[in-house]
Amino acid sequence: MNIYINVEISIRELDGNLLLAVLAAAKGHQVIVSDSEGIIKGINSGVLVPGIFHTKSLTPAEHKIARHEALVEKDFIITSIDEEAGLDVLGFQEFAITRFSDKTIDQATALFGWGPSDTDTLKKLYHRHSSKIHKTGSPRSDLWKSLFRDYWGMPKKAPEKPFLLVSSNMFGANGIVPFHEIIKSKRAFGYYERDKGLLKKEFIRTGEAYFKTEAFTAAIKYLALNGNGYDIVLRPHPTEDIEAWKIYLEGVPNVHVIQEGSISGWVQNAFAVMHCNCTTALEATISNKPVVTYDSFKQTYYADAPPNKLGYLVKSREELLNKVNTLFDEMRSGNQKNISEKDTEEVSLKVYIDNNELAAEKIVKVWDSLARDDHSRSSNWTKFHWLLKAIKFRKMFGKILRGLLQGKFGSYKNNNKFPALNSHDINERVNRLQRILGIKGLKFKLLSDRTLLIKR
Q1: How many angstroms separate the CA atoms of 287 and 65, rounded?
Q2: Which of 16, 211, 300, 434 counts the most CB atoms within 10 A of its CB?
Q3: Mean pLDDT across the stretch 17-29?
Q4: Which letter, b or e, does each residue of 161-185 get, where b requires 16 or more Cβ atoms within 10 Å of its Cβ?
Q5: Measured on CA atoms in the order 57, 62, 68, 69, is the torsion positive or negative?
Q6: Stretch (H or E) spanning 293
Q7: 173 and 83 in a common domain
Q8: Are residues 70 and 215 in the same domain?
Q9: 359 and 344, same domain (yes or no)
Q10: E-state strands within 74-211
Q11: Same domain for 310 and 187
Q12: What are the helix (H) ranges across 227-333?
């Protein structure tokens, strides 16, 4: 069967989707992992034959509804798992209203949930479609398990000293896209029609993101000057502007602002993770890493958020320093404590972890049950390769033209969400997955700098 996996933010989604692709290919499926442009242009040109189109959300925006309607008419099956996930909010009601609708779920054949919170809410709210909503867990959370510890290795830019990982999710204050542009985009996508109180919430959340940015900047400086000899890695969210944090923390010793690579590699190699209402706290808990929740001011909407219930809660810089120093000393002495049962139970409300089967395996089983005879035809991969080359050439030509006539056409925008893939890096990742899973005989090839083919 042909499976087309759409990746939007590669730093967040690529590794989980590679796991999904490797397991699907091992069962004989032909799998494309790509940005949406490559897949959709391949389909519209007739080069890519029908199969499963696996997308990262079912947001009821007009352009997405139109795209999915066209795919269904061409005999494609649509499946989805929401990569935003809503892991950092209490419940799932807001996400269920703003990021799904009866129409978009109706267009899909299967929808996969991260855990009880999203799956149960979606089944209740969209009960007409409950049979197509599956609690599988996420391939991303599969990679947080100890089984995949060797997959990550030490990040290339990791400091030589042991480091505390500080995970930032303050995109409201430090986003690459300005706040007013986000409002404009969400208004166009109908978010504020579906949730009448959302706009007010977002103003308050964004205001609190500025308070949190100041609190974290001051706390990191305090730790850097008074710590026990460790370094600090500040990891901005994929949608944050890394230059903002470099300015805030300029000149602070032993602090590294790094955004490259999946955050999972940094979690696996840190001696502890510091956060405030960040989904990385759930990942760290599953990965059996100590979590420090720094909650130094009263929050309006995130006071009872699941991540803030995890690990060690500290409310002052002095408490923070004491706890981080203690965790560092415990790491050096080999006396690190296991994650508490309370934290494990808290995480299980949001993330379904099955110790006997991977979430990716569950998803592939659902795909197998949806197989149709006409989805077994193979696409002409050579033609698709040349189509992608033509697309890249037109983009390069457009970039040059815009550079020459910038006043008339505007500047060219790079795809910051999905930087170009590196062939050597992808080969290493796929080979590591095969080795860990005991899979042999897969063939994989980069058809373009954002499109990968994996098959038997």
Answers
A1: 37
A2: 16
A3: 97
A4: ebbbbbbbbbbbbbbbeeeeebbee
A5: positive
A6: strand 291-294
A7: no
A8: no
A9: no
A10: 77-81, 110-113, 133-135, 163-167
A11: yes
A12: 242-248, 263-269, 280-286, 317-333
